[in-house]
Design a protein that fits this description.
By secondary structure, this protein is α/β, with parallel strands linked by helices. It has 9 helices and 7 strands. Strands 1, 2, 3, 4, 5, 6 and 7 form a 7-stranded mixed β-sheet that branches. It binds zinc ion (ZN) (2 copies).
Length: 297
């Protein structure tokens, strides 16, 4: 998330989002601005990897991921400020939730670190009984995902850096074909796929640590079945560069970015929003999404 070119790609993707009349403009503004803040954030992370069991086979768990808490709290404050500064173009329900959350964080009545702990437990698939998230779902019924959104948005730079460091420490080669569709670093399911290169090498984007890794061309990224007759998909008019891939075995779907014939670069967190109409089509066909977006919404 750290380079100038990343910022350039985000800005050009935002332009495309703005030109799509059927996309909610306030949601585009919210995610676009947040992505820019995330991109501007890197280079200052202090991460402690000492407690992570590197020898654990085959993967670590979201529970092993630590954050640079100072950076996390500073970024969440910046994101909340940015939302309130641009309140005219932001989703009103999110603005209201942010006003409430900002108020209690200021009075130290809400621990963002505890909210983060509950979210990683949720990602790890453990029994979930987090009181902070449940309380805030009830507190902000019009934007029940507001707190998870803020927490994951501010955690993203740390998670991405830890994911990369773990991959390096464990010798995980992102270019090597992984037999399982789950993230080789943290075990989470991917939220988007992407085809790259002349041969259409297939890459998966992790929904938790954002690690990108190569997977098999014909295999479900959820249940790993590789029978071609169970795996189908579709495209939609007006959605160039995107395809939905479905699995009859586990009844899930995932969207694939394929910009190889288009003059543009991928930025999966926003391309996911851009291709929202395909989610509606997949849901109409009765398929369940493999993983939430990286925005927890
Ligand atoms: Zn991961
Ligand atoms: Zn499947």
């Amino acid at each position: 998330m750290e380079t100038l070119s990343q910022t350039r790609i985000i800005l050009s993707t935002m332009e495309r989002l703005n030109s799509r009349a059927h996309l909610p403009a306030d949601l585009s503004a919210l995610l676009g601005k947040t992505a820019l803040l995330q991109a501007k954030n890197t280079g200052v992370l202090e991460l402690d990897l000492s407690g992570i069991p590197l020898s654990q086979v085959p993967v670590c768990s979201p529970l092993d991921f630590s954050l640079d808490i100072k950076n996390f709290e500073a970024l969440i404050a910046r994101i909340m400020e940015a939302i309130l500064e641009a309140r005219d173009i932001m989703p009103p329900s999110v603005v209201n939730a942010v006003v409430q959350i900002q108020g209690v964080v200021g009075k130290k009545e809400l621990s963002l670190e505890q909210a983060w702990n509950e979210i990683r437990i949720r990602f790890a698939g453990d029994d979930f009984s987090g009181t902070v998230l449940k309380t805030w779902e009830a507190q902000t019924p019009e934007a029940p995902s507001a707190l998870p959104f803020l927490v994951m948005a501010a955690a993203a730079p740390s998670l991405q850096a830890v994911g990369r460091a773990l991959a390096e420490a464990k010798g995980i080669d992102p270019e090597q074909i992984h037999t399982s569709g789950a993230c080789p670093v943290c075990g989470s399911p991917p939220y988007m796929l992407e085809l790259r290169g002349k041969e259409g090498q297939r890459f998966a984007h992790c929904s938790f640590c954002r690690f990108t890794y190569r997977i098999r061309r014909v295999a479900c990224a959820c249940c790993n079945i590789d029978k071609a007759d169970q795996l189908t998909g579709f495209t939609a008019e007006g959605e160039p560069g995107f395809r939905v891939e479905t699995c009859a075995e586990c009844n899930t779907y995932i969207k694939t970015i394929d910009f190889r014939e288009l003059d543009r670069e991928a930025f999966a967190p926003l391309n996911d929003l851009e291709s929202l109409p395909l989610d509606m089509l997949a849901a109409n066909h009765g398929y369940t999404r493999m993983a939430l977006s990286v925005w927890c919404i």
